[in-house]
Amino acid sequence: MDFLTGVCTKEVISLSDFIESDEGAQVTMEGAVHSIRNMGEIAFIILRSREGLCQTVWEANKTNLEISELKEASCIRVSGIVKNEERAPHGKELRLSEIVILSNPEAPLPLAVDKWKLNTSLEAKLNMRSISLRNVRERARFKIQEGIVRGFRDYLHTQGFTEIHTPKIGAKGAEGGSNMFKLSYFHKPAVLAQSPQFYKQMMVGVFDRVFEVGPVFRAEKHNTRRHLNEYIGLDFEMGYIDSFLEICQMETEFLQYTMDLLKKEYDKELKLLGVELPNVEKIPYVRFDEAKRLVSEKYDRKMRNPFDLEPEEEELISRYFKEEYDADFVFVTHYPSKKRPFYAMDDPAEPAVTLSFDLLFRGMEITTGGQRIHNYSRLIEKIKKRGMETEGMEQYLSTFEYGMPPHGGLGIGLERLTMKLIGDDNVRETCLFPRDMNRLEP
Amino acid sequence: MDFLTGVCTKEVISLSDFIESDEGAQVTMEGAVHSIRNMGEIAFIILRSREGLCQTVWEANKTNLEISELKEASCIRVSGIVKNEERAPHGKELRLSEIVILSNPEAPLPLAVDKWKLNTSLEAKLNMRSISLRNVRERARFKIQEGIVRGFRDYLHTQGFTEIHTPKIGAKGAEGGSNMFKLSYFHKPAVLAQSPQFYKQMMVGVFDRVFEVGPVFRAEKHNTRRHLNEYIGLDFEMGYIDSFLEICQMETEFLQYTMDLLKKEYDKELKLLGVELPNVEKIPYVRFDEAKRLVSEKYDRKMRNPFDLEPEEEELISRYFKEEYDADFVFVTHYPSKKRPFYAMDDPAEPAVTLSFDLLFRGMEITTGGQRIHNYSRLIEKIKKRGMETEGMEQYLSTFEYGMPPHGGLGIGLERLTMKLIGDDNVRETCLFPRDMNRLEP
Questions:
Q1: Tens of pLDDT along chain A (442 residues)?
Q2: Cα(A27)–Cα(B340) distance, rounded to whole angstroms?
Q3: Based on CB atoms within 10 Å of each CB, which residue in A271, A322, B191, B400 is the most buried?
Q4: Rounded-to-integer distance, Cα A303 and Cα A141, Å
Q5: Nearest to B335 by CA among B314, B315, B318, B319
Q6: Main-chain dihedrals φ then ψ at residue A151, nearest 5 degrees
Q7: Which residues of chain B are modeled with pLDDT < 50?
Q8: What is the mean pLDDT of chain B?
Q9: How far is CA A203 from CA A405, B253, B442, in A?
Q10: CA B360 – CA B366 distance, rounded (Å)
Q11: d(CA A401, CA B51)
Q12: Do B284 and A3 touch (CB under 8 A)?
């Protein structure tokens, strides 16, 4: 009988191994042909692999293949000798003795992915996503996004949170309203989850602290630079809080941890994109009404809607805190009750506002959170006051009947956070395969 | 201006801190009242928090509250003195001076969650999920599940995989067929993703190695102990493989890493459920036709369908390898081509079978994987031979036109793996909120 033992015996080295190699070492590497610069007797073949680019050198009569046999976008395995070379990336190049072609393309690339900057529209990039992301700067966005998700999970894990997976098909949504995609589920009406809100609250009674990273679906008829109809939510919910500020505190710590992680492990990608990490040592917080007043005074702007922030106001609040306190982030607290969902806890001292917050980052809301009502009677009372139906929420509501700790949580939009961190001006840039009102493919 | 600095100042300690506390220490803890045993002058209050149970002791005239003021399922904050006590869990108890009630339930619990074994049906447990999981053995399943997901991500990260997030709403499914949930997406027909197959392959051309942990939707009309209509897929895809056995090798390493992680960090939960971890030092692999022959001979069973494994055959193959080699897992390789999707690579030496595999674990398939066709012309040829349409697959197919490395990957059903590891007999036990043909709530 044959067995697998989990011991890999391949002798192919990675780019970081190559960078560590001594001059004169004989090594084998794999990758895609990113570009070929043919000088006649010699040719520079830039090899692209998951860690980046590497310069390899073909020499007539020294390398097994003719250079004409090689194409851009071929996948190859190459062997050769490591040579120090100041002008090459990483100060090293590989002088090739052998090239094995693993696969060849059947058509020339439709985009010049080897250029520093892809000279094409967002629309074209999205239409050819699997090609445009072969550009190393384009793909760097998603390494940084990976780092943010790792930071979220790893930090919350150290704080005693349990990761959960809640269903995306359900009978009813958490926020109510018409923003849900509807489907037929074995002849029963169903919706796609617009947030894991109900489930994460229900699980606070079990695990005290929970988080989830998963897709969120919003059938909103917005077609803007900041909206997606499917996005990744970074959600957490924590019990035994004395104040909603503990939730903001936890988010501050997550951001501090994550910026550290990015600095340490994603420096290459940050440099590729010229990203300057924000200062997260301390994050100011300000009441909603106070924030409105501050920007209205400083920028001589008339307040129109006292119950909500317009996108322009979000930008001005961020600008204010950047100018006055050099802050990239600001928590805006105590949102008006009428603009928050029924489960938001009203401030006992001032019932027209809630113990809730948004986090603004460089002019845009990237998080909504707050304390939730944990008392069954008050929850029922608020539902009645709003004239809502409890149908389909029986399981959620009964959880509170059987006791729940004071709790709260938040939801972060991953693509938006990535977008603002990188400095992109369209959230589609930081979503692998965005879904908007017009885009369902690829 | 007020700032958050990410420094938490709360003095509440966790259960593990309590276990490390010295006798005589004054500490504060939080949790839910799991049970109360009232002996008159003293009462034992078992406190449940995320890490487990803790014995606290109320004493008449020494604790601020009357014991009658306390209910099961109240959430409380307690302060007192640590006392060594052999008969208490962890050999310690907390003698209470102060109890603060944070919240009270409004109805008595419908289930005796403090019992060692919840004496109720699966149906009832699922109907009252947020209550039944307050039983520490019930919730332990999901801590173990968390450990499996951590193992998957952490191990693949060390192997140079990039985590991706692919859309769950799309224009067309990866496997074709009728097993998809349909919805209307802004008046356009759309489906829920039955796998991230197309997207993860497309991203192999970008990141070389990718993985995803996310929901998968199957509109299959199965109502069995092993099927869910929404489940969590652990998917990976890797480029530059020489053989599909490298994929099996990677899965073997993931299992080894994960069993180690569970042993180290989830020992408490494994003990609660009496789970014995499987041996994953070496995993046998056997051809599909050979496996069929072996069990047909040993167990004197007639082969009916030469192209697929019946559930009973999966059980017998597992039994065979357990009896003959003491193996809990077995890779079954070279599945017939006609039972695999179009993108599966046929064996050049024997085109009726594919370079693919399933992994069986204790009698059940928990993984399907294999090498994929990476050559554009061959892919088109196979699609034509099957009489399939290419409509809606243009983006996927064009990726191959522009070059792709040899690659393959797999998908693991998280709930099934958890189920077989724990020894449950219904996959609904290891899904927080299962979706099946009859269940859409909670």
A1: 899 998 777 899 999 999 999 999 999 999 999 999 999 999 999 999 999 999 999 999 999 999 999 999 999 999 999 999 999 999 999 999 999 999 999 999 999 999 999 989 999 999 999 999 999 999 999 999 999 999 999 999 999 999 999 999 998 766 666 789 999 999 999 999 999 999 999 999 999 999 999 999 999 998 899 999 999 999 999 999 999 999 999 999 999 999 999 999 999 999 999 999 999 999 999 999 999 999 999 999 888 888 888 889 999 999 999 999 999 999 999 999 999 999 999 999 999 999 999 999 999 999 999 999 999 999 999 999 999 988 888 899 999 999 999 999 999 999 999 999 999 999 999 999 999 999 999 9
A2: 37
A3: B400
A4: 37
A5: B314
A6: -60, -45
A7: none
A8: 95
A9: 11, 32, 12
A10: 6
A11: 24
A12: yes
Write the pLDDT tens digit of every residue in B336-363.
999 999 999 999 999 999 999 999 999 9
Question: Which own/partner contact pairs does A44-50 have at CB distance under 8 Å and 24+ positions apart?
Answer: A45/A70, A45/A78, A45/A96, A46/A114, A47/A76, A47/A78, A47/A94, A48/A134, A48/A136, A49/A14, A49/A15, A49/B208, A50/A14, A50/A15, A50/B160, A50/B162, A50/B207, A50/B208, A50/B209
Looking up tokens 């699966």 gives: B122
Secondary structure class of B353 (helix, strand, coil): strand
Is A163 in Cβ contact with B146 (below 8 Å)? yes
With a CB cutoff of 8 Å and minimum separation 6, the contacts of B174 are B193, B194, B195, B196, B197, B198, B341
Residue B71: list chain A partners with CB under 8 A. Answer: 403
Instruction: Classify strands B162-163 and B209-217 as parallel, antiparallel or unpaired.
Output: parallel
Start-end of H helices in A112-218: 122-127, 129-132, 136-158, 197-207
B158 Cβ contact partners less than 8 Å away, ≥ 6 residues apart: none
Report CB contact under 8 Å: B230, A166: no
> Nearest CA to B338 among B295, B315, B290, B306?
B306
Would you state the pLDDT for residue B174? 60
Q: CB neighbours of B432 closer than 8 A, spacing ≥ 6?
A: A164, A165, A166, A167, A199, A203, B129, B133, B142
> ipTM higher than 0.90?
yes
d(CA B17, CA B90): 12
pLDDT in tens, A15-25: 999 999 999 99
Which has the closest alpha carbon to B248: B284, B278, B204? B284
Interchain CB distance below 8 Å, B230 and A169: yes
- Nearest Cα neighbor of B177 from B368, B388, B420, B432 is B388
| A128: nearest CA partner in chain B | B395
What's this model's pTM, rounded to 2 decimal places? Answer: 0.97
- For B442, the closest of A160, A182, A395 (CB atoms) is A395
